[in-house]
């Protein structure tokens, strides 16, 4: 989350960027399904451009694609988000506590609505909009932060901004998922 890329003092010795440079110069790349679909999900920002693609064991691709492009939300994920927001970027405790409360309420209601492992949701799940709004509050707070109170030792301020960006991305995915649960397609 806190990679400074070319601003990092260890950039020239970094294994990741060295491997990436070698990949750009290669005539043939062998990658797994997860990396191929992570590249697709990032609009081609991971792998160098390619003209030909051979997919081995392509019957596994739909499952990996579901993971790469799907939306998911869990109570455990919400707790991890709240913890990261507190520890990594010192989010206001009021926002974090509201997030934890709304998440607990939402997942309780969800468990009451979905009595089987697989349930087609045709009606809005009560609390989805409330939790999405709380997540939106966290997202706005993260977007507005300049982290001016952090002493910029070892580029700590820049690292905090990168951590905030990662949390914004995670929060955005949760909001999208909750919007689907708040406004399900009855068909």
Defining traits:
mainly alpha; flat; single chain; 187 residues
Care to describe what's here?
- There is one protein chain.
- The protein is mainly alpha-helical.
- It has seven helices and no strands.
- Helix 4 runs antiparallel to helix 5.
* Structural class designation: mainly alpha
Give the distance, in angstroms, between the N- and C-terminal Cα atoms.
39 Å
Question: How do the helices and strands follow one another from N- to C-terminus?
Answer: HHHHHHH
**Helix segment tally:** 7
- Find the count of extended strands (DSSP E, 2+ residues): 0
Low-confidence stretches: none
Bin the helical content.
55-70%
Any idea what the radius of gyration is?
20 Å
Mean pLDDT across all residues, rounded? 89
Describe the largest sheet: none
Proportion of residues in β-strands: under 5%
- Principal-axis shape equals flat
Task: Describe the SSE topology.
Blueprint: H1 15-25, H2 33-41, H3 61-69, H4 75-89, H5 93-113, H6 128-144, H7 156-182
Helix pairs in contact: 2-3, 4-5, 4-7, 5-6, 6-7
């Amino acid at each position: 989350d806190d990679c400074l890329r070319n601003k990092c003092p260890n950039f020239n010795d970094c294994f990741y960027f060295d491997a990436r440079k070698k990949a750009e110069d290669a005539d043939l790349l062998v990658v797994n399904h997860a990396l191929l679909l992570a590249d697709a999900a990032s609009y081609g920002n991971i792998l160098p451009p390619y003209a030909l693609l051979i997919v081995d064991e392509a019957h596994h691709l739909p499952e990996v694609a579901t993971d790469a492009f799907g939306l998911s939300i869990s109570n455990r994920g919400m707790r991890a988000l709240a913890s990261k927001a507190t520890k990594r970027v010192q989010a206001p405790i009021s926002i974090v506590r509201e997030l934890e409360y709304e998440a607990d309420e939402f997942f309780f209601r969800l468990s009451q609505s979905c009595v089987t492992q697989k349930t087609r949701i045709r009606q809005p799940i009560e609390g989805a909009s409330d939790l999405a709004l709380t997540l939106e509050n966290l997202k706005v707070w993260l977007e507005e932060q300049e982290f001016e109170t952090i002493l910029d030792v070892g580029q700590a301020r820049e690292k905090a901004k990168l951590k905030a960006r990662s949390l914004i991305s995670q929060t955005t995915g949760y909001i999208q998922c909750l919007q689907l649960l708040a406004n399900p397609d009855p068909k």
